[in-house]
Amino acid sequence: MNGPSPIRTAFNRAHAYDQQAMIQAQIAEKLALGLAQVPPKEKLYGLELGCGTGFLSRLWLERLPHTHLLLSDIAPAMVLRTQANLQSYPQNTLKFAVMDAEAPCLNTAFDLIAASMVFQWFHHPAASVANLLNLLAPSGRLLFATLGPDTFQEWRSLCENHQIPCGLHHYPGADFWFDLATKQKMSLELSEEHIPETYPSTLDFLKRLKAIGAETPAPNHQPAPAGKLRRLLVPPGGIPTPLTVTHHVFFGTFINHRKTGKP
Ligand SMILES: C[S@@+](CC[C@H](N)C(=O)[O-])C[C@H]1O[C@@H](n2cnc3c(N)ncnc32)[C@H](O)[C@@H]1O
To answer: Domains (ranges, CATH) in the chain?
Structure first.
């Protein structure tokens, strides 16, 4: 994890994440339903990637309290926020690390790896997730929630209508995840949801992205000229109109049925 990372900087600054990331909390709740399917084991070794402030971590420790859990995030401030939020849980089985999940420095095998709303930030999702799958123990599982291609289509259309670049990342579709599972010789259970959220105005939507550290645009994004952006944000008559945006979310579980290490 070398060099400047705008993603890390943005999440470090997200002081209000806990209060403002309501959709992410809801998504972590849904992803945590998959914890009930994890086969019981006396000692379960777990790795959480991009733990944020610990929405999923808390549910994990409530449902599988015997887990020896390594909690990691690329943003040091996020790791500290999780650490603070987990103070009431037994500490002897918890470890914390600042770690880029695209370059994990680990040689342990894990029974359970989870990442809620993290993979959409990866620069090289195919190679990086394949690498993470190689960290699974036999019969191990990787649970994830990530954004799909329909995410924020409303914002994309609005930008197209105003002829300005929208800055949205490219989020892969279901085929990408199934191809990856096939290549890695693992099974994949995948479901998807479209979760709408309405903001009083477009400006409120953009402010929320910033508050939760999610404002980093796609690489090579050219910001819109200020005048054009203002015309989009301040509608004729100056009265803001509500904006509904949709989170398109994939919930997936990879299961490692391999007998030996790599595919
Ligand atoms: C949308 S937040 C989700 C946080 C938490 N999992 C949750 O559900 O609330 C994304 C998190 O992923 C982290 N992140 C982004 N890219 C990462 C990477 N390459 N490696 C590890 N963490 C990353 C961010 O710092 C941030 O904490």
So the answer is: 6-150+169-195+248-255 (3.40.50.150)
